[in-house]
Amino acid sequence: MTETISDVEIPDTRLVAEATELVREAATPLVYHHSRRVYLFGSLRGRAQGLRFDPELLYVGAMFHDLGLTAKYRRMDQRFEIDGADEARRFLLAHGIATKPAETVWTAIALHTTPEIPLHMAPEVALVTRGVELDVLGIGYDAITDEQRAQIVAAHPRPDFKNQILAAFTDGIKDRPETTFGNVKADVLEHFVPGFRRGDFVEVILGSDWPE
Fold it and tell me: What residues have CB less than 8 Å from 90, skipping those under 6 apart?
C-alpha cells in the first residue's frame, strides 16, 4: 500500500523500501526523520515549480544525503557529502539503475551543501538541496503551507532539531576538519570545536610553491 504524507506519495517500490531500511539501520532517528522530510519538502517544492522529477531518484538522494554522518558510512579522507553520494551510487547501480541517473543522485548528494549551484541543475539535484535548505535553514519556509508543514512534522517529528542537527554535523565531521575547507560545515566546527581554525583561501594562494 502506497504511503502518502501531505499529498506526497512515497514510491511503493522495492528500491525505495530497501533504501528506507538501509537508512533506518545506519542512521539515528534524527537523521532518518530529517531525510524523509527532505524528500517530502523537496517534492512539494518541485511540484510548486512544475518540475518533472523521478520520485525514486529524489527519494534515494534525500535519504542518503547525510549517510556520511553515520558511523557505518563515514570515512576520514573525504567530505561527508561524498560518503553518502558514493553509497547512493553503489546502491542504485546494484539495483539495476543506469549509470547516468545514478550519477545524477551522486551529484545531488555531493552538492547539497553548496549554495545556489544545485538549483541550476537537474530537478533531482535541485530538489534535494531545496528540501535540505527548507528543513535545516528555513529557506522556502513559506513556499509551502502551514498545513503541509504540520502534516510532515507530525509524521516525522523534529524535537529540538536545530541543536540536535548541529550536534550531528559536529560529530560527523570533527575528526576530518580539513574536509570542511571552502564549505559551510567549517562554520559548524568554528562554533563547536575548540581550537578549530578554518582554512584560508588567500593563505593557500600566497603560501603555494609558486614564486609569484
Answer: none
